[in-house]
Automatic annotation (TrEMBL):
Accessory subunit of the mitochondrial membrane respiratory chain NADH dehydrogenase (Complex I), that is believed not to be involved in catalysis. Complex I functions in the transfer of electrons from NADH to the respiratory chain. The immediate electron acceptor for the enzyme is believed to be ubiquinone. It is found in: Mitochondrion inner membrane; Mitochondrion intermembrane space. One of its GO terms (biological process) is mitochondrial respiratory chain complex I assembly. This is NADH dehydrogenase [ubiquinone] iron-sulfur protein 5. Belongs to the complex I NDUFS5 subunit family. It is a peripheral membrane protein. Its main location: mitochondrion. Disulfide bonds join 29-59, 39-49. PANTHER family: NADH DEHYDROGENASE [UBIQUINONE] IRON-SULFUR PROTEIN 5. GO terms for cellular component: mitochondrial inner membrane; mitochondrial intermembrane space. InterPro entries: NADH_UbQ_OxRdtase_FeS-su5 (IPR019342).
Amino acid sequence: MYYPLANTFSSLIVRMASGYGYNGGKSRCFTFWQELRKCYAMADHPTQCVLQSEDYLECLHNTKELARARRIRAEILKKSGQRKKKEATLRKTSQAALDSKVMRLGIITNKND
């Protein structure tokens, strides 16, 4: 049976850096690397280590974190655009109320008068 991820895991296992960080201690992803290595050594098929591989790659590249941040930012921009539209319609209706004949009859007083 052919496992396309087997080559990916094999190349991942071979290409790991030293495991030391810039300041001499363990690198930030070393524990994830150890978990992947342990799973790969004990697994019957490399596909059993997909979760550990995803954790390790996420630690290295932060792809899921960045995608989530982009989605949050897009939602914030979308909501701020909706808020601006609501504010614009409120301004229009308040201006229409100021220009109405009810104002001229003295029922509603203008703050500027």
